[in-house]
User: Which sequence fits this backbone?
């Protein structure tokens, strides 16, 4: 692991192309039951499937690159939304001090650009990227918001270790870009919209109010296991929420695997975890019931995906 030279595949599967290629799916059912962890051990040497995958343009992270991708089944149903990171992207990463210096000298960068932006989010310095997914017709997901957090972020003692936040957003980038914080959330979230076992998190710096975070929204956590599998934070799944309709009720707006740098450096094979689901969804579409972290040895890379999509029908009326 990590010793295979990175070679650009000759079949063109890392070539960036953008077009709508997911077919519409019939939306049936309103709830998905998905709890617990599914462990995998098969190494995906040729991942994702090259003939059914579309790629974004690359952006630079550390000494490597990352690209987003969308994969479909032979029949055109959604299979994966994901990001592939070169293993070299885990070396040469900027420190919090470097990111702070960039911002202070007016060279913070552009989150839509090839090297991202340096900004302070939730009391911590991050390098942030907004990278679109190849267009999709069947899922609500629009773009990837990826943040490198060299010193982690609150809460202390849990997520304050070097890690990467991988936001699979369901809102348009311009809408997410306009979210500012740290601010108190001014909306409620009806119980059916909360994923099973998930809860809102009081923010100490806001006097215990629920917090809206810049470029993201509110973060919901698994009440039983906020650090994810095991006793130490290695990988965990956050659901995000925000109020978009003006009716004072928040709804789910992103899915966020958080993975530590150390975990990404050492992962082998495939680790797959189920995504807890709400009873009611923001819109009709195909929603993921699992996320996975994969070693991709042929590319000397790691893939982080949402997958196992199930079509659902939005039945709630605002």
Assistant:
């Amino acid at each position: 692991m990590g010793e295979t030279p990175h070679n650009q595949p000759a079949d063109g599967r890392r070539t960036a192309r953008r077009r709508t290629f997911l077919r519409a799916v019939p939306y049936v059912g309103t709830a998905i039951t998905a709890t617990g962890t599914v462990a995998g051990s098969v190494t995906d040497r040729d991942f994702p499937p090259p003939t059914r995958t579309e790629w974004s343009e690359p952006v630079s992270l550390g000494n490597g690159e990352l690209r987003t991708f969308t994969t479909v089944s032979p029949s055109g149903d959604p299979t994966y939304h994901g990001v592939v990171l070169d293993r070299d992207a885990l070396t040469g990463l900027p420190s919090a001090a470097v990111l702070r210096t960039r911002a202070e000298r007016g060279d913070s960068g552009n989150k839509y650009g090839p090297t991202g932006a340096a900004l302070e989010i939730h009391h911590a310095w991050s390098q942030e990227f907004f990278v679109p997914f190849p267009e999709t017709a069947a899922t609500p997901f629009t773009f990837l918001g990826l943040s490198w957090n060299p010193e982690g972020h609150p809460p202390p003692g849990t997520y304050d270790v070097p890690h990467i936040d991988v936001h699979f957003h369901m809102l348009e980038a311009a809408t997410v870009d306009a979210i500012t914080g740290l601010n108190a959330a001014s909306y409620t979230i009806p119980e059916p919209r909360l994923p099973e076992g998930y809860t809102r998190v009081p923010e100490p710096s806001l006097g215990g109010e629920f917090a809206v975070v810049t470029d993201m929204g509110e973060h919901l956590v698994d009440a039983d296991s906020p650090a994810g599998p095991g006793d130490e934070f290695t990988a965990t799944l956050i659901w995000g929420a925000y109020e978009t309709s003006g009716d004072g009720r928040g709804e789910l707006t992103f899915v966020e695997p958080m993975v530590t740098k150390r975990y990404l450096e050492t992962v082998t094979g495939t680790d797959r975890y189920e995504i807890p689901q709400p009873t009611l969804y923001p819109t009709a579409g195909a929603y993921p019931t699992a996320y996975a972290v994969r070693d991709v040895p042929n590319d000397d890379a790691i893939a982080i995906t949402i997958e196992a999509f199930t079509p659902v029908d939005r039945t709630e009326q605002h």
Remarks:
- The chain has a mean pLDDT of 85.
